[in-house]
Amino acid sequence: MAIYLTKESKVLVQGMTGGEGMKHTRRMLAAGTNVVGGVNPRKAGQTVDFDDRSVPVFGSVREGIKATGADVTVVFVPPAFAKAAVLEAADAGIGLAVVITEGIPVHDSVAFTTHARAKGTRVVGPNCPGLITPGQSNAGIIPDDITRPGRIGLVSKSGTLTYQLMYELRDIGFSTCVGIGGDPVVGTSHIDCLAAFQDDPDTELVVLIGEIGGDAEERAAAYIKEHVTKPVVGYIAGFTAPEGKTMGHAGAIVSGSSGTARAKREALEAAGVSVGSTPTETAKLVLARLDDQRQATP
Fold it and tell me: Is 249 a catalytic residue?
């Protein structure tokens, strides 16, 4: 019941000894994540105590992988160092790099996502909350206590809306929730997650959360129409945003009909996706689609 992250995942934290890294490593451990080490060249050989767990610090990702068999890294380093951190992780052969850092220059994101793809490393983010497989593992900053394991898959550009839908649908529960990030360049797309959820036998329905700007949701709609047989429910943030403005976190300029919430909604609905006007309405649509799905199953 998971994509990308399971209870078997062994997690390194790049930037674990910093303030944010320490705080969220403690949270990840409390959620049951198998954090096997941190990475800081200046503190290699030390250990950091988290309640009842001591976590070793390695001088490099390569050393951490060699010592622990780690296959996931979570990146909590400042923007100026994020590119080098991801390049290092990809060169070391890590399977999944979850980049929480926000404010990374776009040209840096282009460089490290391209390099990681060539090396066979999946990047989630940057500027994302990470991903969680409830009851198994949590890589990032998503609260682990607002939902439970279940059969809904969720992929979202927005961290806050990820949390809200997880909470509103907590009685049903989730297989995996993936916050892909809202920057103009991200390593994992809606389409990547849709393909993975389609192939996951324990994901029954997919929730897709998008935002104004760009054409990611329109491309996802085209993919759904051709390749996804499971029900998909969507929500697009930004219906009231003014046209011709840069919308902060969305990181995109909306001009005319291109990139607007209306255009995205129309594309998704044409592909058979039920699209809510509010997060709460979206949750109700999920419940309705699940009921329809189960009644149609002999």
Answer: yes
